[in-house]
């Protein structure tokens, strides 16, 4: 079964899933991998299953191996109660297809009447200064929710790529919107940004995603980064015998 909007792109449904007013989380590999990393963690932790994918000539002909299975790169997931939906893509989409694919997805979102459509993206920086890891933007209702959960509003934000295209189409269809921007280090895997995003989602939507494994990973990551910085400082000061970074 598939849905089309008079275009060459469509949603292909693998099972009959009828979510009712779900929270829809989406992220794509455009500016940062943090959003996709976060959603993959949520999928695994909440035991979500795939129920659809996007068929489109604007998606590169790539198959990905995920969770022990060969899968389409642009997938839709839901939890057993169909309270949450996740939309993600493991590969970048051809920008020429943003308009067409976003229309197909937004038409389906309109049908299921979501509580919120939440775009998750990373905000890469060279250095994290004040420790604040999450900022938010959204419509009037979303702004109130963000403030109630003590999540700072971004002073300005430019949401680009597939996520931005879908949000534009959701605006045209008067769907409730929010975007969470996770501050993350440039070009470095950053489990702290994933943890901050999951914490924010748990707070806002009561998702109850387990964070203990993320906290452990983040702690180890910070310890390793601290050691690397110390080794680098020793080298800069003339000590040519740093501890091995690969021990």
Which terms summarize this structure?
25% strand, 11 strands, alpha/beta, Rossmann fold, nine-stranded mixed sheet, globular, two-stranded antiparallel sheet
List SSEs in N-to-C order.
Answer: EEEHEEEEEHEEHHEHH
CATH topology: Rossmann fold
The CATH superfamily bears the name: PAC-like subunit
Q: Which residues sit in consecutive blocks of at least 5 with pLDDT less than 50?
A: 240-247
Q: What is the overall shape?
A: globular
What does this structure look like?
The protein has helices at 34-45, 98-112, 140-148, 161-172, 191-205, 212-236, and strands spanning 2-4, 10-13, 23-28, 49-55, 64-66, 69-71, 74-78, 84-89, 116-125, 134-138, 177-185. The chain has 247 residues and is of the alpha/beta class. The protein starts with a strand and ends in an 11-residue tail after the last helix. α5 packs antiparallel against α6 (212-236). It has a single domain (2-186), classed as Rossmann fold (3-Layer(aba) Sandwich), CATH 3.40.50. The strands form two sheets. Strands 1-2-4-7-8-3-9-11-10 form a nine-stranded mixed beta sheet, sandwiched between helices. Strands 5-6 form a two-stranded antiparallel sheet. Residues 240-247 have low confidence and may be disordered. The radius of gyration is 19 Å and the shape is globular. It contains six helices and eleven strands.
């Amino acid at each position: 079964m598939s849905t089309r909007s008079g275009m060459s792109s469509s949603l292909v449904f693998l099972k009959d899933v009828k979510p009712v007013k779900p929270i829809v989380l989406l992220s794509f590999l455009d500016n940062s991998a943090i959003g996709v990393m976060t959603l993959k963690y949520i999928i695994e932790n909440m035991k979500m299953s795939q129920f659809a994918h996007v068929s489109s000539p604007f998606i590169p002909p790539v198959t990905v191996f995920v969770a022990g299975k060969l899968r389409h790169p642009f997938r839709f997931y839901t939890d057993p109660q169909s309270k949450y939906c996740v939309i993600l893509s493991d590969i970048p989409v051809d920008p020429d297809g943003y308009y067409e694919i976003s229309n197909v997805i937004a038409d389906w979102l309109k049908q299921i009447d979501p509580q919120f459509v939440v775009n998750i993206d990373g905000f890469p920086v060279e250095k994290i200064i004040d420790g604040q890891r999450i900022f938010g933007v959204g419509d009037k209702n979303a702004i109130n929710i963000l403030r109630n959960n003590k999540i700072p509003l971004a002073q300005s934000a430019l949401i680009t790529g597939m996520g931005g295209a879908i949000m534009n189409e959701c605006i045209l269809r008067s769907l409730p919107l929010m975007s969470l921007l996770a501050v993350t280090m440039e070009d470095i895997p950053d489990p702290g940004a994933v943890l901050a995003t999951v914490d924010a989602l748990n707070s806002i939507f009561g998702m109850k995603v387990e964070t203990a494994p993320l906290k452990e990973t983040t702690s180890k990551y910070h310890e390793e980064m601290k050691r690397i910085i110390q080794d680098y400082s020793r080298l800069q000061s003339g000590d040519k015998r740093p501890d091995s970074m690969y021990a």
